[in-house]
């Protein structure tokens, strides 16, 4: 195991960054305490620093030879490998990294070591603790020919890998790197166990190199862009960092005078001091007019409804390409008469002058049919009081009670008045409604039907057939009426009883309005 002195040396190496770590970690002057010499280039390839995160202990990564690892057998010494939370600083994260050296003779195999050249291996099959990991004191060259010190990575799904020891157990079973005993605490030991599919055997490997999303922009022909001076690098475990020293390989000025695509490449410096490639792609071309957009309405639909449903963006063309860009648009409805939707046909609406470019909205006005809005999608209901959970006022059955407001306590506790409300996901035009209480308690004496306007207020439905509240003089209730068309975000029914000796019920509520026929 490493001593405190070696730990300090390792951190000193870490401050040099990833590129330096690869070159320096194997110098004899650093690793001589472990008898580690420069690896023979014919045996091992260049190492990749990896943070190896456990799926079953998320947020924690394997460290090799950390003296703070939990004691384990034999002799209650610190485990050769254990998990610890992601560090916060660049040097501490670098110090956590496992160096994965590819074995040149078998590139699918890797030797895992820490920055001091301490190699991670599984104990031999003749050892009674053969499942346990060890730091056997092998040099990197020796590990390159020892199957117990070599590992493979295979896909475990979801971005995770199985890490398998090349040396199988004496039984022939494959030894997977395993989060021992399903432990998750910092310092918990890592061992091996028979290969399976449990989360304790799944690991995500993270490279210490940032990725930067390419910049994608459009520029007008003849106008060179200002290349970005601030970009964010992202690491696969979630760390983000602003790149330093961003430098671009700027092209010649004449590339911006020709329509097309220009790619500019450059570099920045990441969190660990590593060089990070960056790229910016520019579509060079001037904006033109917009392609036509279309929508469908129905006969009798109000202009207000059309305006609310009209698209708010269009696609503008770009010279020299088939590419379009999304642009906001405002439509000029001023030329349309109030009865523009009275008959089937096509309406054209131009973009307002304030939009700054030409665009056209084509609206096809199709035949309409009257429908029961409450049986469609996007309807939500509420009430003042409901007995239990029996609410079936929109099932199309007019003569079976679908709502009642019984409440214990007799006449003193009757709910009077009671209200049933329906809310619409989007404004709808209402032209009438119906309320029924057939086969129920026969106790509805008064009814008021209201619509909810665009700002949330409740207003009596405008009808000349009756005054509100409607007085029901019959045992059952069958109220049907037409209304002056209104644009509504909801409808509600307010009912009062004939007598406190009984509770009230309803069997069906309907709200009528136009919709596209068919």
Main attributes?
518 residues; mainly beta; Trefoil (Acidic Fibroblast Growth Factor, subunit A); Immunoglobulin-like; 8-stranded antiparallel β-sheet; 8% helix; 42% strand; flat; Ricin_B-like_lectins; signal
Describe this structure in words.
It contains six helices and 36 strands. It is mainly β and about 525 residues long. Mean pLDDT is about 90; it is low at about 1-35. The longest helix is centred in the N-terminal third of the chain and has 11 residues, at about 5-15. Helix 1 (about 5-15) crosses helix 4. The protein folds into four domains: about 5-205, Trefoil (Acidic Fibroblast Growth Factor, subunit A), CATH 2.80.10; about 215-285, Immunoglobulin-like (Sandwich); about 285-365, no CATH class; about 370-515, Sandwich (Jelly Rolls), CATH 2.60.120. The strands form ten sheets. Strands 13-12-11-10-7-6-1-14 form an eight-stranded antiparallel sheet, covered by helices on one side. Strands 27, 28, 30, 31, 32, 33, 34 and 36 form an eight-stranded antiparallel sheet that branches. A hairpin with a 4-residue loop joins strand 3 (about 70) and strand 4. The chain starts with a helix and ends with a strand. Keywords: Signal.
């Amino acid at each position: 195991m490493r001593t405190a002195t070696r730990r300090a040396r390792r951190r000193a190496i870490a401050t040099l960054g990833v590129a330096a770590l690869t070159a320096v970690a194997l110098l004899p002057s650093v690793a001589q305490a472990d008898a580690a010499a420069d690896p023979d280039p014919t045996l091992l390839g260049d190492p990749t620093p990896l943070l190896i995160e456990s799926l079953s202990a998320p947020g924690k990564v394997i460290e090799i030879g950390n003296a703070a690892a939990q004691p384990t057998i034999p002799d209650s010494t610190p485990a050769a490998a254990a998990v610890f939370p992601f560090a916060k600083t660049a040097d501490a994260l670098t110090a956590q990294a496992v160096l994965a050296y590819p074995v040149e003779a078998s590139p699918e195999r890797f030797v895992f070591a820490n920055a001091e050249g301490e190699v991670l291996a599984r104990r031999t099959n003749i050892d009674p603790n053969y499942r346990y990991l060890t730091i056997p004191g092998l040099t990197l060259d020796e590990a390159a020919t020892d199957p117990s010190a070599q590992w493979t990575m295979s896909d475990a799904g979801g971005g995770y890998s199985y890490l398998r020891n090349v040396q199988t157990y004496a039984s022939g079973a494959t030894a997977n790197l395993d989060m021992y005993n399903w432990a998750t605490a910092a310092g918990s030991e890592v061992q091996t166990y028979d290969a399976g599919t449990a989360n304790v055997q799944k690991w995500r490997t993270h490279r210490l190199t940032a990725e930067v999303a390419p910049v994608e922009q459009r520029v007008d022909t003849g106008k060179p862009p200002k290349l970005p001076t601030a970009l964010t690098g992202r690491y696969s475990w979630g760390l983000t960092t602003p790149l330093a020293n961003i430098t671009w390989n700027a092209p010649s000025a004449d590339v911006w005078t020709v329509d097309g695509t220009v790619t500019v490449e450059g570099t920045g410096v990441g969190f660990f001091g590593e060089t990070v490639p960056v790229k910016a792609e520019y579509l060079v071309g001037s904006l033109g007019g917009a392609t036509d957009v279309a929508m469908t309405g129905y006969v009798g639909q109000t202009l207000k409804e059309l305006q609310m449903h009209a698209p708010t963006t269009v696609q503008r063309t770009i010279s020299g390409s088939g590419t379009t860009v999304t642009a906001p648009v405002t439509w000029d409805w001023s030329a349309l008469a109030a009865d523009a939707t009275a008959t089937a046909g096509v309406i054209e609406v131009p973009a307002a002058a304030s939009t700054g470019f030409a665009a056209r909205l084509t609206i096809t006005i199709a035949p309409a049919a009257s429908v029961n809005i409450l049986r469609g999608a996007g309807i939500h209901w509420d009430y003042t009081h409901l007995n239990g959970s029996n609410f079936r006022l929109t099932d199309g059955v007019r003569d079976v009670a679908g709502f009642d407001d019984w409440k214990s306590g007799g006449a003193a506790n009757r709910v009077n008045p009671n209200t049933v409300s329906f809310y619409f996901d989007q404004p709808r035009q209402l032209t009438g409604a119906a309320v029924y209480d057939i086969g129920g308690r026969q106790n509805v004496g008064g009814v008021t039907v209201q619509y909810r306007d665009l700002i949330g207020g409740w207003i009596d439905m405008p009808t000349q057939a009756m005054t509100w509240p409607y007085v029901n003089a019959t045992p059952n209730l069958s109220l049907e009426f037409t209304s002056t068309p209104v644009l509504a975000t909801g409808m509600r029914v307010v009912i009062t009883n004939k007598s406190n000796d009984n509770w009230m019920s309803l069997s069906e509520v309907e709200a009528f309005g136009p919709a596209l026929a068919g």
